[in-house]
Design goal:
single chain; 306 residues; alpha/beta; four-stranded antiparallel beta sheet; globular; binds ligand RRO
């Protein structure tokens, strides 16, 4: 038996612990991703990258809200051709799985980006089909089961690596999308991306973000994300990665009990610091010991036992 109680398997990936860097928080550079790996993350997800470079939106792109952050970065990225060499270099430096988040404006584009990322050394791809505020990609794809299926099928044909689907909470029934993703061969589901939100400046009497609307992350969305994980776990067998407002070990354990096999941490790094990974892992381990569990895998979905 594996003697590390925190180790877990997820969509064919071996993780030394169930905490994962969420997409979008620390960008692309090897140095910042290495810093998170050294802080104790069990895997790393990059910021989303597409086929061609994108500038993103002008400032302001982030505004603080009660219990979180509202962002509308607008998918700034260097494009996969430019980023491929950084993926290869990052792989020579970090020892935890590297998951490359990708987006596209069509199924063909998603597939092409997935292929290039895989050739560059990605251990898995996470499909961003849930960015709440960029037109013709993100949630415009992920809110439509037919389009979502096409994208996943083409990506699965383009890569032999695990394909993870990041779902949007901005939908009536997230379980329907989770089922569509599962039918098309998704290896894991990340639940959830940010919640559509807005902030207004009373002085200027205008929205604060240059894009007007953005996505809310952080503790304010934790109960929404937790409910999404709970609902999906009831109906779908595909492994789930919980994401949304996880800042403490108690948050992480709640997501595991709801049915997540791993958790992603994002805003807590921005609002606190990367050491949050160590604190969360230490807390999970102490909890497992206290409750006499040998492995983190034993508590996945335990809240469903009645
Ligand atoms: O870049 C963004 O503005 C962004 C993305 Br791609 C996403 O998936 N979720 C989000 O809140 N912001």
């Amino acid at each position: 038996m594996n003697s590390n109680p925190l180790s877990t398997r997820l969509a064919g990936l071996e993780l030394k612990n169930p905490t994962v860097l969420a997409s979008g928080i620390l960008g692309y550079s090897t140095e910042s991703l290495q810093r998170i790996a050294e802080a104790g993350a069990g895997a790393i997800v990059t910021k989303s990258v597409g086929l061609t470079p994108r500038m993103g939106y002008p400032n302001p792109t982030v505004v603080q809200a009660n219990g979180g952050l509202i962002n509308a970065m607008g998918l700034p990225n260097p494009g996969i051709v430019e980023y491929a060499s950084e993926i290869s270099f990052t792989k020579t430096v970090i020892t935890v799985p590297l998951i490359v988040s990708i987006y596209g404006y069509s199924a063909e584009e998603y597939a092409e980006v997935a292929k290039t990322a895989t050739e560059a050394g990605a251990d898995a791809v996470e499909l961003n089909v849930s960015c709440p505020h960029v037109k013709k990609t993100g949630s415009e794809i992920g809110q439509n089961p037919m389009l979502l299926k096409q994208v996943i099928r083409q990506v699965k044909a383009a890569t032999s690596k695990p394909v993870i689907i990041k779902l949007s909470p901005n939908i009536t029934d997230i379980v329907e999308l989770a089922q569509a993703a599962t039918k098309s061969g998704a290896d894991a589901l990340t639940a959830v991306n940010t919640v559509r939100a807005i902030a207004i400046d009373t002085e200027t009497a205008l929205p604060i973000l240059s894009n007007t609307r953005g996505g809310l992350s952080g503790p304010a969305i934790k109960p929404i994300a937790l409910c999404a994980v709970y609902d999906i776990y009831e109906k779908v067998k595909t492994p789930i990665i919980g994401c949304g407002g996880i800042a403490t070990w108690q948050d992480a354990v709640e997501f595991l009990l709801a049915g997540a096999s791993a958790v992603q941490i994002g805003t807590a790094i921005a609002l606190r610091d990367p050491m949050v990974f160590q604190a969360i892992n230490h807390g999970i381990q102490t909890y497992l010991k206290k409750k006499k569990h040998r492995s983190v895998q034993e508590i996945v979905g335990q809240a469903h036992r009645n």
